[in-house]
Amino acid sequence: MRVFVTGGTGTIGSAVVAELLESDHTVLALARSDRSEAALRSAGAEVLRGGLADLDVLHRGADQADGVISLAFGDNGMGGSDGLEQAVAEEAAAMAVLGESLIGSDRPIVTVSGTPWVSGRASTEADPLPLEGPVAGRARSVDALLGLSEHGVRATAVRMPRTVHNDGRGGFAGLLVARARRSGVAGYPGDGSQRWPAVHALDAAALFRLVLESAPAGTAWHAVADEGDAVVDIAAVIGRRLGLRVQSLPDDAFGSFGPIFAMDQPASSAYTRATLGWQPTHPNLIDDLEHIQA
Questions:
Q1: In a designed cystine with 37, which of 31, 69, 167, 254 is the match (CB 3.0 to 4.6 A)?
Q2: Of 113, 118, 155, which Cα lies nearest the Cα of 135?
């Protein structure tokens, strides 16, 4: 299968590109810079130059492919509430163009979202995405894409946990590491008992391939290896690896992510594993954080 991939140089995307190529697919990847193009070509992918906001380029990429994996999310999504809103809107417009390009073709498109939060238990694949809150726009665009299943598009979604990691980097845990380096304190919000789900990027990539190849239209799947690690345990490893004290901090110390960081948000992938035969095999988050360099 010839697959058009956006976001192919990120933590998840680079793993997805490698997984596809190792499984005898070909990859056409979006690249917005010379550096990204060089990395993608070195990995063995073909390159289409452009950014997520270049809707004509996205349409052209989808037209040239047998399937699409949409992973790109603007860098300004980490730059506070205004940046997050802009990134969500940009992603929604891109996803709409990619989906519309496939109408009537029965070709697959796989997009990405986060696992939902459910009070009092781990969320499952059957739980809807939240339509309120800072990332509600992502939920609406994912739901709209899945709705194209009624129009000849094999649209699916892979829901990612709060931390997608590789060699101790990535996701919410990676943000805690970066903040600890800047501030000199390995901090966590609240009492640290809140749980974050996690997955190794290489395990997530294997699920994206399985979903692309075989998942039915209109379905959502959970790329969750660790159902929920306590944030205080994550911070403890960070503090030990960096030689910093570990302590609770007020939510606002984490900026726009504070309210999200403070939530207990475990997630299950039992249905995904049983149905698609996906089995994570790479290190869990706590073990992978041992790769943090002081």
A1: 31
A2: 113
